[in-house]
Each structure stands twice: as structure tokens, then as C-alpha cells.
Amino acid sequence: MSECFNITNKCEVLEFLENDKDTLYSCLFVNYFFCEVTVKVLWRNIWKFKLQSDASLQILNTLIACLPNTSKCLLYSKGIIIPTPTSKPPLFDYVSFCKSLSIGDISVIIISYFKNQQQSKTSEKSKGMKKSIKLVIKEILKMYMNKINNLKRLDYILKVDTKIPYNIRFINFPRARDCLKNLTKLSCASGIESKFFHLLSTVCHNIQSLHIFYRGDHIRSEYELMKLIYSQNCLKKLKINCNDTYCWKGLIPSLKKHYNTLTKFYLSDGIYDGKPLLFITELINLQELFLLSRNYYELEYAILPKLRVLRIYGESFNSLNIFLENNGKNLECLECCFLETLKEILNNCKQLEKLKVKLYTRTKVSDALEIISKFSPKNSHELHIEDVKMFKSKELESFFIIWKGRVPFRSITFTIGGIMVKNEIMEVIEKYKKLGIIKKFELIK
């Protein structure tokens, strides 16, 4: 009993280290038990590591090594030979540990591999390479469907400059239903055929997070997508990326069922006439709202009592102050670019802790810093300034001097994005870090 308890505790500890890759790597060499549990944690979402040096190729090699012999023989018969880490069978059944599948990342890794291996760019070889890429993707997806019993996250979105073969109907592979039935997070593109959404709507009823990416005017399956949305039991997060309101407003009727469960809504809509956003006023339990659009007048008198995070960009939001008078009192995090009303915004958000401001012109930098330093609520302790083209050390020093005199004083987490930091700026930052004014600094390029 004691031994089982200790094993359970060790597993739970490693679960908490999921994002601490260095510590996890060290656990690989303790013993076989620690190695197995660590591998399970790492492979739960292996796509987090794809951007690391050589990680993509290592992931591909491991996936090829895990393929069943029938798939390996098929690839070999087509002249497709991708080296594996060792000729011996894999130590673990890595794919069975996966809880996340990114078809876009699989496609990118395989396409990159074949492009690097291609010696000639003749049209004949290019055509043959496309067939090889499609076959490898197909066999890997078939393996995923066969080996995973409890997939939680599926990413099926087109990557930039990479064409995912949407005509690979992995949804029809044996055991695909069993693999996909417990999905809780789905990201998908509008170009996917309707059969995919139809099957998901019959087997997946517990999706909590849904991201829909509209690519151009490719809307092949709106009706089936509506059915999928409606069939969910507890949709909590909805994210929509598109360039045209008409792409997504047809989905609104299917959202009515989820008015009480949606807590997060994200919309990036390039062309917008205002009216479709009226349904947001019905989301009484909404806690996080992101809007990138042109007009927001339908939300002016919305009452969202549980709103905690607001990220809003686009053309000037003349009704923002009215909206914040009704909804700003409990707001903890705000992102915006409306400098002309920044003072009023801060006065309406007395519980604000985090502020992110996008500045587009040089002349606004000093004004913004002065307003933020003088009118930020007493709970404020995080500031992120984005898209500053020129940043002067005197302005920054003045900001920190005023911040130091705030009552009550709280050290600040300070982030700058979109600029190259000069030495004189870093000198100011280091100075106020030593003085305890800056708790943490981060540069995001």
C-alpha cells in the first residue's frame, strides 16, 4: 500500500513539471519507472518542443520508428526511407502517450524533411515528392487513430505557406471514433470537408474550447459546423478568426445553447457591420473578451458582470468609456490601443492589475507613460507597451520616478514589445531593477 502511494505521489509530482523541460529531462535518467512516467508527460503534447533545435527531425524519426510494420513496408515499397534513431524497436509506445495531435505540425515537419532531401526540382520529382508527403502523413495519422484511446486536443488548421492535405480522410480510419470521442479542445479551418464535422458532431459532445479559422472565402461546411457547435454539452471558449463578418455570423444561432456556459470569446473580424456582436450581451458568465474589429456600438450598454479580461483593438471605440462604466469595476486585465481615452479607461477600472497598450506614433509615448504612472489603479503591477518605434530613456526614467512615489507602492512587471532596446534604455531598466521598482523585465521582439 505504501509503495503504491509513493508511486502515485511521484507521478503527480512529474505531472506538475510538464512545462519544466530541464527538470523533466533529468528525470529520464533516474530509473526505468521515472523514465517511463517522464516520457508520458513529455509526449502528452510533444508539439510544444517542435521549435527547439533538431526537435522536429527527432519527432519525425520517432514517429516513423513507431509505425506498424505494414506501414513501414508500404513506405519502403514506394521508395520512402526515413531514418530512425535505432534499428531496434522503440523503448516505449510513444504515440499512445499523446493527448494532443497537430496535423498542421505533422505536415510542416514532413514537408520540411522532404524538401531538405530533394536533390532535383524537376516537375516530375516534385509531383512524386507530393505523393510521398501525402502517404507519410496518411500513415502517421492512421497510427494516431489506432493507438490513442483518449485524444484531448486536435489542431487541424492550415499553417502559413503549407498546404495540409485535407483530402486525407483520417476521420474514416479504423478506431477514429474511439480516438476522437473525448476531445475537449478543437482548432479547425474552414476548408475542411463537411464529413469531418458531421462525424465529430455524432461522437464528440464534450468540446470545451473551439477555434475556427476562416481562410479567405473557403466555407465548405457551415451547416455541419453549426451542428457540431450545437451538439456540445459545455462549450466554454470560442475563438473565431476571419476577414469577413459574413463568414461566421451564420453560426450565431447555434451559440444560443451555450450563452450560459461561454466564459471566453475571441473574435478577429476584418470587415464588420456591428450588428452580429449583439449576441455577446447575452453571455452573462463571460469572463474574457477579445475583439479585433471596426465598430463596437452594439456593446455600449452590455452588462457583463463577470468580465475580468478585456482585449480590444480596431478603430476608435467611442463607446468604450460607457462600456467600462458598466463593466470595468471588476476588470483585472486590459489590452487596448485607445490612447485618447486612456485616462478615463484607467479611472473606470479600479481593480485593474495588468495593462497592455499599443502605441503607434512617437508623440504618444511620453503622454501614455505619464497617464499610466499617475492614474493606474492601486492594484496595478504589470505593464506591457507594444509597437513603440522610438523609446527615450528620459521618458522611461520619469515614469519609474513617478511609479516609485505611488501610494501604496507595488513593484512592476515591465514588458516591451516590438522594438530594439538601446543600451541607454537597458541602463535605466537595470537601475530600477536594483532599486526594486521593477520586479521583472521582459523584451518581446
TrEMBL record:
InterPro entries: LRR_dom_sf. This is F-box domain-containing protein. It comes from Rhizophagus irregularis.
